Every structure is written in C-alpha cells, then in structure tokens.
Amino acid sequence: DSGVTQTPKHLITATGQRVTLRCSPRSGDLSVYWYQQSLDQGLQFLIQYYNGEERAKGNILERFSAQQFPDLHSELNLSSLELGDSALYFCASSVDSGFYEQYFGPGTRLTVT
Amino acid sequence: EDQVTQSPEALRLQEGESSSLNCSYTVSGLRGLFWYRQDPGKGPEFLFTLYSAGEEKEKERLKATLTKKESFLHITAPKPEDSATYLCAVQAGGGTSYGKLTFGQGTILTVHP
After folding, report:
1. Residue A31: is it exposed, middle or buried by C-beta count within 10 angstroms (0-12/13-18/19+)?
2. Which of A18, A43, A65, A96 could form a disulfide bond with B103, CB atoms 3.0-4.6 angstroms apart?
C-alpha cells in the first residue's frame, strides 16, 4: 500500500458525460501528479500540482482539467467524454516538486460506453 | 523529446533462471531514472531511483544499474511472484516538465515454476 488513495475504483459512463476523479496524496506529500494508462499509449503524464499550484503540464486535453485543494487532495475533471478516454487514471504523489520518487495510487478505471 | 525504450517486450523465465531487462533512454539532462513494478490492474510500485552513470541499487533478487544511455534491471534466481510488468521512467532536468516522468512501454515478465 503506497498511502495514495483514489476514488472511485471503477467508473462507467456514457459519451458526452462529465466525471470527477479524486486523489488523496501520502501524508506529508505536497506534489500530486496525474497519469493516464491505455493499452496503446502506455503511461502518459497529464499534469502536476505542487502545494495548490500547477507546476507542469503534459499532453492533457482541453476537455480535462485538474486542481489541488488546500488540504492537498486533488481532483481530475474529464468532460465531453469520448470512447477513447476509456483508460486507467493514476494519481501519484511525492514529498516535494522536482526530482523525487513518485508513489502511485491504485487507479480509477474509466469505461466510456 | 524524451524517449524511453524497453526490451524485450515480454520475457518468459523458468524459476531460478537469471536474466536482465533493458531500458534505453534519450533525454536532455537526465535527473533521475526510475524502475517500477506493476501488477495487472494495480498502480505502479516504486522499486529504485538511479541518478548518475555507474550507480547500482539492489533489493532482494533485483539489481538496477545505470550507464549514460541505458539501464539494466537484473533479476537473479527469479520466483513466480516476480511475475509482473516492469516499467522504466526518466525525469529530465528543469524546464516546463519539472516533475514529469516519461515511461517506457514496459517488459512483461513471466516466471514459471
């Protein structure tokens, strides 16, 4: 158990809908990262927050957004969902921003039908 | 653009048969190379961080090494419970992708009893 929690574990929704994925980092970690894992693309970095502020951005779609709250939990919002958004979404956390190992949560499996 | 290539894609071993997994990388200013283990449907589990060429780290039957262009994960006398996907990731220095990990596609290891 990495100490990172994610909810929900599974999510099934229809095209065009909007969902919110939630992540709580390990106790004491200030940085949160979101990754998407699909069979054809592998693990892809989406976005990083550090102590409430956006720190780095990957190939995150405009339909996706994220935020980190004062209690350091983070939410990833996915809107206008398409079939191709079906994937595993992982949250990771690290003690600080920059060059530290990242600990991953168990993931949320999103299925868009 | 940072790139990570892992080989082989899949590896089947008999219990006790030692072998190595390869991770080749191209990155501008390597700050860290990370190895993770991932079981099906679960989040990646952190194994090692290597920071500079010549560095080695060990954990039970696993040993990771780093050169200027690649990293190896050596598995000595593997057991069936070592079966998993092993992921390699790199972190580049600074810029707008500060905390981003770039992952390879992984090596699926199967150890038969």
Report:
1. buried
2. A43
